[in-house]
Amino acid sequence: MRRGRKAAGRPLLIGALALAVVGGTLGLYWFQPWKLWQDETVDEALPGAVTTASPPGAVTTSPPPAAAPAPSPTRDAGPRTVAGGELVSHEHSTSGTAQLVRLTDGSHVVRLENLDTSNGPDVHVWLTDAPVKEGKAGWHLFDDGQYVDLGKLKGNKGSQNYVVPADVDPSRYSSVSVWCDRFNVSFGAAELARA
């Protein structure tokens, strides 16, 4: 009789263990908790801010660029910050600044400078029309209105540029969010005050 109970309980135990393993594996994939301890630093120069020339006698493998008309001498000969603000923390501690920068060719980039936030699964940079609220009140606002996904966060630390698509009017947006798409929550955000 005792043997029958042991044999009957064994498939339940194996099934429970298999379910626990599958559940644990899915949980690890979904949350990716190891990313909280992995920092990725990306430091990019502002596009168009620094030009470097080849040293005399250097061999280049690409053809020389087509001649472009010389820019007219104006005050705005280089990239210009159109709007910017300090990042505030939401779901994760976040600091640094966000800037909307107009480049010399008329295009725009969102620049995150001195960014310091947590790493996470599926984190993106959004240009949004939502107001920035501090604390928990600001965690879930940014997907309520209009937003433009500028791409995956390149690194959770450093200074990075995110191209604003040419068909987007940046004046229609008032904030930037470091947004976790997986959990629909803002890690941090900045109100873009016009310069």
Find the structural class using helix and strand composition: alpha+beta
Q: What is the tally of helical segments?
A: 1
Distance between the ends: 83 Å
> Helix and strand string, N-terminal first?
HEEEEEEEEEEE
Helix coverage percent: 10-25%
Overall pLDDT metric? 80
Poorly predicted runs are: 50-74
Shape: elongated
Major sheet summary line: 6 strands, mixed
Q: How are the strands of the largest sheet arranged?
A: 1-8-5-4-2-11
Rounded radius of gyration (Å): 24 Å
**Total number of beta strands:** 11
Strand content: 25-35%
Key phrases:
5-stranded antiparallel beta sheet; 195 residues; elongated; alpha+beta; 15% helix; 6-stranded mixed beta sheet; 33% strand; 11 strands; single chain; 1 helix
Question: What is the structure about, briefly put?
Answer:
The chain is α+β, with helices and mostly antiparallel strands.
Provide an overview of this structure.
It is built from one helix and eleven strands; from the N terminus they run αβββββββββββ. The chain is α+β, with helices and mostly antiparallel strands. The radius of gyration is 24 Å and the shape is elongated. Mean pLDDT is 80; it is low at 50-74. It is 15% helix and 33% strand.
Helix and strand topology:
Layout: H1 2-31, E1 41-43, E2 80-86, E3 88-89, E4 95-102, E5 108-116, E6 123-128, E7 147-152, E8 157-164, E9 175-180, E10 185-191, E11 193-194
Parallel strand pairs: 1-8
Antiparallel strand pairs: 2-4, 2-11, 3-10, 4-5, 5-8, 6-7, 6-9, 9-10
